[in-house]
Specification:
The chain is mainly α. It has one domain: Up-down Bundle (Four Helix Bundle (Hemerythrin (Met), subunit A)). It has 5 helices and no strands. Helix 2 (60-76) runs antiparallel to helix 4 (102-125) and helix 4 runs antiparallel to helix 5. It is elongated, with a radius of gyration of 21 Å. Residues 5-22 have low confidence and may be disordered.
């Protein structure tokens, strides 16, 4: 009887440990997911900024595609921050405020989503007089969220 209890204890312990490892892997994957989204967003922002600043020729189709990509990333942002994917789960620069102030975080993400949707609409016009201010608004929404919820540059 004692050996059966011991064996059950070992099996239960292994199951709990395996569940914890699976959970840790999921949180590590969430961190990788959001870092990848931020990298994609940053790349597209840099290219659009170069066009807005006239450091490279404006290409309406490319700009529209990049604005659309940024908007897509905005719509996926919340998916990259599941509960438990904080600094205890791995290498992340997300501040604890992401999880301790979820309403504010969601509001900032919603502002990014709206601004990026407006940027897509402006990009479709090809008119830099419309695009410039919408680009600035979108960049500002990113900065506001990063200032509140990111501890340093990734």
């Amino acid at each position: 009887m004692r050996s059966i209890k011991m064996a059950l204890g070992v099996v239960l312990g292994m199951a709990v440990a395996a569940g914890s490892l699976a959970s840790a892997d999921a949180m590590s994957d969430a961190i990788k997911y959001r870092k990848s989204m931020m990298e994609v967003t940053g790349y597209n922002f840099k290219m659009m900024a170069a066009m807005v600043k006239k450091e490279m020729p404006f290409d309406k189709a490319q700009f529209e595609k990049m604005a659309s990509t940024v908007h897509t990333m905005s719509m996926l942002t919340l998916d990259g921050f599941p509960k438990g994917s904080d600094s205890l789960a791995g290498d992340t620069n997300a501040k604890d405020a992401v999880w301790s102030e979820p309403a504010k975080f969601k509001d900032d993400v919603a502002a990014f989503q709206k601004a990026s949707a407006d940027l897509v609409a402006a990009a479709k016009t090809g008119d830099m007089a419309q695009i410039g201010p919408k680009f600035k608004d979108t960049a500002g929404s990113c900065k506001k969220c990063h200032d509140s919820f990111r501890s340093k540059s990734e």
